[in-house]
Amino acid sequence: MERHMNGQTAVGELLNPEKCGSSAAVDMEAAESFIQQAMEIIIQEAVKKATNVKEKVCEWRSPEQLKELLDLELKDTGESESRILQYCRDAIRYSVKTGHPRFFNQLFAGMEPHSMVASFITEAIKTSLYTYEVAPVFTLIEDAVLRTMMKLIGWEEGGDGLFNPGGSMSNMYAVNLARYRYCPDFKEIGIYASPRLVMLTSQEGHYSIAKAAALLGFGTKNVYVVPSDNRGKMIPSALEEKIQQAKSEGAAPFFVNATAGTTVFGAFDPIDEIADICEKHNLWLHVDACWGGGALMSKKHKHLLKGIQRANSVAWNLHKMLMATLQCSAFLVRDKSCLLQRCHCAGASYLFQQDKFYDVSYDTGDKSVQCSRKPDAFKFWLMWKAVGTRELEYRVDRALSLARYLAQEIKKREGFRLLIEPEFANVCFWYIPPSLRNLSDCPELWKKLHTVAPVVKERMMKLGSMMIGYQKHGNKPNFFRMVVISPQVSREDLDFVLEEIHNLGKDL
Predict the structure, then answer these.
(1) What's the pTM value of the predicted model, to 2 decimals?
(2) Is residue 16 over pLDDT 60?
(3) Phi/psi of residue 415, each to 5°?
(4) How confident is the model at residue 195 (pLDDT cuts 50, 70, 90)?
(5) What is the pLDDT averaged over residues 414-423?
(6) Strand pairing of 426-431 and 416-418?
(7) Distance between CA atoms of 342 and 52, rounded to whole angstroms?
(8) Are 174 and 313 in contact (CB under 8 A)?
(9) Which tops the pLDDT comparison, 10 or 380?
(10) What is the DSSP letter of 270?
(11) Is 70's pLDDT higher than 50?
(12) Burial 137-152 (b: 16+ CB within 10 A, else e)
């Protein structure tokens, strides 16, 4: 007979509120048993197996195939414990193993055990970070992490900030805060309270800036795109020209987004020069350091963000280079006048009573556009406590060293061509199959080369051997973008990548 969670009922009846006394105790015992069994599956399948270089990065199935394999239908009655545990196994099996040493597809990778455990704890505690009374520990931890991050940025006198769901949201916070500083009446009166406002970002800036313009009512045509040089860095003189253009049109530029670690090339905008221009025109300077912020942990590489202490705000994703579990994104503001609070507060009386018995300055929820907010800072704090600043610095230095090793290997190998020397952990290159190697650099070569990366990517995915991203850029045909992050990655893994690309693409 099929075993259910309490020997009699299905999972859906676990902790039935109509039960009481000893029956409820039996249900709790069953819940503990289920959690223990599920955790064993997680450890074996999502930790051990998923980080084993001998296992596949993914078990590729098409959407149609996966729908057939997974029982996706939601039913009126609960299902048996064994079925639920099998769903857990299936969810892990057919998911991409981003902790695998040969996963290089995104700006996050690797398995960090301390941050993973912190994630489990925050889910088990199931609290929300809006008031101290319901999240006392996590409120203090968020404050401590933000303060330490501000020191790394160079804000010795502190500032303000909060954790939120992703770098795109951090960038949107920056835009909204800059608008509020420029025109405080906008919060109550709306678009009628301001002139036509213009935001400026480089052509390599993250697309979330354009999304912020659409979401916040500026319109994407009021995002002025500043040209970048051939390494992907914003050109300061071009920024000055765009500002003057906006002013000559009768518009009011108010916000500049500089990028520290662009998504494609990993380029760092010249923050100091951009800050000079922003101060000259009294513009809010935001630095999107979601990807490149990790370099601040390294004495060797923090020069990449020279001038970041002059920024009005910074976005920094700790789930990227520093490997906290997703999501772990900080938005930091140099302002100490409660600008974040004034911009977003709504004063909900059922949450933010001013006559509480403790210091209500620890009720941080009214700074946020969210109500419920996850205690994500704990996922970085616990990891930082476990490994220390020196280990975090070592991880950054090692990742960038491996990226340079890969670049050198690409230059040595026939059929591989580097786009640019890597500045950070992004390595961009073409693989040119033997059939194309006798062609000179001409439209025919670029047209044929454009088709190579997508086919190689399809083959590696279906084989499950590794995962690497590809894309086109401007007039450049599709190329591979390798991102090196995880300390589990070795030189042998990088050598394997180049060999595997050749093996998968040599017949093209």
Answers:
(1) 0.93
(2) no
(3) 90, -5
(4) confident
(5) 96
(6) antiparallel
(7) 49
(8) yes
(9) 380
(10) -
(11) yes
(12) ebbebbeebbeebbeb
Residues 160-184 pLDDT 10s: 999 999 999 999 999 999 999 999 9
235: left (phi over 0), alpha (psi -120 to 50) or beta: beta
Helix axes 491-505, 377-412, angle to 10 degrees: 60
The rounded Cα 177 to chain-centroid distance in angstroms is 21
Its sign, for the CA torsion 474, 477, 478, 484, is: negative
- Could you tell me the two tokens for 239? 């920024």
Measured on CA atoms in the order 224, 228, 232, 233, is the torsion positive or negative? negative
Which tokens is 115 given?
A: 């941050």
What is the enclosing helix (H) or strand (E) of 386? helix 377-412
pLDDT, tens only, 117-141: 999 999 999 999 988 999 999 999 9
Count other C-beta atoms under 10 Å from residue 337's C-beta. Answer: 10
Q: Do residues 179 and 254 make contact, with C-beta atoms less than 8 angstroms apart?
A: yes
Helix (H) or strand (E) holding 37: helix 22-41
How confident is residue 7, by pLDDT bands cut at 50, 70 and 90?
A: very low
Does 92 score more than 60 pLDDT?
Answer: yes
CB 91 within 8 A of CB 98: no
Q: Is 325 in contact with 112 (CB distance < 8 Å)? A: yes
Amino acid symbol at 393 = E
Sequence-distant (≥ 6) Cβ neighbours of residue 428 within 8 angstroms: 264, 265, 418, 419, 420, 422, 479, 480, 481, 482
Q: Which amino acid is at 19?
A: K
> What three-state secondary structure class fits 105?
coil
d(CA 338, CA 78): 49
CA distances from 158 to 194, 304, 489 (A): 30, 22, 36
Contact 484, 403 (CB under 8 A): yes
Predicted local confidence at residue 349, as pLDDT = 81
d(CA 327, CA 165): 6
Q: Which residues pair with 164 in a beta bridge?
A: 329
For residue 78, pLDDT over 70 is answered with: yes
Measured over the CA atoms of residue 114, residue 120, residue 125 and residue 127, the dihedral's sign is positive
Mean pLDDT of the chain: 93
Length of the chain: 508
In whole angstroms, give the CA distance from residue 495 to residue 492: 5
- Tell me phi and psi for residue 470, to 5 degrees: -140, 165
DSSP 303: G
Give Cα 400 distance to the centre of its chain: 18
Relative to beta strand 476-483, strand 160-164 is unpaired
Closest CA to 480 of 104, 97, 107: 104
Q: With a cut of 80, say whether residue 350 has pLDDT above it.
A: no
What backbone phi and psi angles, to 5 degrees, belong to 406? -60, -45
Mean pLDDT confidence for 196-205: 96
Q: Give the phi and the psi of residue 99 in degrees, each rounded to 5.
A: -85, -5
Distance CA 259, CA 257 (A): 7
